[in-house]
Write a structure and sequence with these properties.
By secondary structure, the chain is an alpha/beta fold. Helix content is 38%, strand content 14%. Helix 2 (65-78) runs parallel beside helix 3 and helix 2 (65-78) runs parallel beside helix 11. The longest helix is centred in the middle third of the chain and has 17 residues, at 149-165. The protein is globular. The N and C termini lie far apart (48 Å). It binds ligand PBG and zinc ion. Zinc ion is lined by residues 128, 130, 138, 174-175.
Length: 332
């Protein structure tokens, strides 16, 4: 007889047995986050003498070429899997001419990083026009103010070739134009870069969580919003269609973005995608946790690691996160 008065211990199933102590919990953990799962998005700005702190993203900077190299070294040292580069040009125009200039800021920075850290991590280039156009939309406009889809495709193909020429190991189109992956694949192949993979921002939603990024990348639309090309947060089936189209067009990897509010999409895409799946922990997610932690309302490091674990649990192989270097250090 035991204290409950039953012959056998009751209850028989005791899930808490496997939670007794860190060693047991570690042994039975179903999900792991490793530094190599993490990709660090970085901003490099043309013509600034010193790095500029991004006020809505404490700890993040618009880098100079030099400070970018230092930060990339730190990421590599920490074991981070890759970096995703965003450029901010000194001059913008209607068609975003600086984006495919062989000596544009991203191209120069790609050359630096390919040489410095290209063997230690994957140097990726975000491929879009919103940081480069005077109006802040992701491609040149029609007279009616809509982005001209097919003209934009020609621009994207040219940018892809310029980025590959500068040493991008992966190009990552984020503009959500129809046919962009096929156009970029053709452009890369024509230019002799058949071996450069495409990471397609396949399911990218029109999200409020990009707010701080628009300060960081200086790419806010001057009028209107991006709902004419990015996805409606209400839709699931549409995301699966976007992924299927991008894979059919030759995407080597696909991304879901944002992450935390879209983990159902990450999970569905991860279940069905024939190619690796990334998810982007976007600027607004970063800002929310940083702000709450600053007020003492949340345990910052636990929140960071918990959210990264959630991304992995949902099925993402790679997580883009502004905490990549710090999290990699914590995980080691
Ligand atoms: C632009 C782009 C955006 C982000 C990545 N690429 C912003 C947008 O679409 O308006 C967001 C990243 C973030 O919020 O961290 N194509
Ligand atoms: Zn864009």
């Amino acid at each position: 007889m035991n204290t409950t008065g039953h012959e056998a211990a009751f209850p028989v199933a005791r899930p808490r047995r496997l939670r007794r102590g860190p060693a047991l919990r570690r042994l039975v953990a179903e999900t792991r986050v490793a530094p190599e799962n993490l990709v660090l998005p970085m901003f490099v700005k043309e013509g600034i003498p010193e790095p500029v702190a991004i006020s809505s993203m404490p700890g993040q900077f618009q880098h100079t070429r030099d400070s970018l190299r230092r930060a990339a070294h730190e990421a590599a040292e920490a074991g981070v899997g890759g970096v995703m580069l965003f450029g901010i040009p000194a001059r913008k125009d209607e068609r975003g001419s600086a984006a495919d200039d062989p000596h544009g800021i991203v191209q120069e920075a790609l050359r630096d990083l390919a040489k410095d850290v290209g063997d230690a991590l994957v140097v990726m280039a975000d491929l879009c026009l919103c940081e480069y156009t005077s109006h802040g939309h992701c491609g040149p406009l029609e007279a009616n103010g809509h982005v001209d889809n097919d003209l934009t495709l020609e621009r994207y193909a040219a940018i892809a070739a310029a980025q590959a020429e500068a040493g991008a190991a992966v190009v990552a189109p984020s503009g959500m134009m129809d046919g962009q992956v096929a156009a970029i694949r053709a452009g890369l192949d024509r230019a002799g870069y058949a071996q450069v993979p495409i990471l397609a921002y396949a399911a990218k939603y029109a999200s409020s969580f990009y707010g701080p990024f628009r300060e960081a990348a200086e790419g806010a639309p001057r009028f209107g919003d991006r709902s004419g090309y990015q996805q409606d947060p209400a839709n699931v089936r549409e995301a699966l269609r976007e992924v299927a189209l991008d894979v059919a067009e030759g995407a080597d990897m696909v991304m879901v973005k944002p992450g935390l509010a879209y983990l159902d999409i990450v999970a569905k895409v991860a279940e069905t995608s024939p190619v690796p799946v990334s998810a982007y922990q976007v600027s607004g997610e970063y800002a929310m946790i940083e702000a709450a932690a600053e007020r003492g309302w949340i345990d910052r490091e636990r929140a960071i690691l918990e959210t990264l674990t959630s991304y992995r649990r949902a099925g993402a192989e790679q997580v883009l996160t502004y905490w990549a270097t710090e999290a990699a250090r914590l995980l080691r």
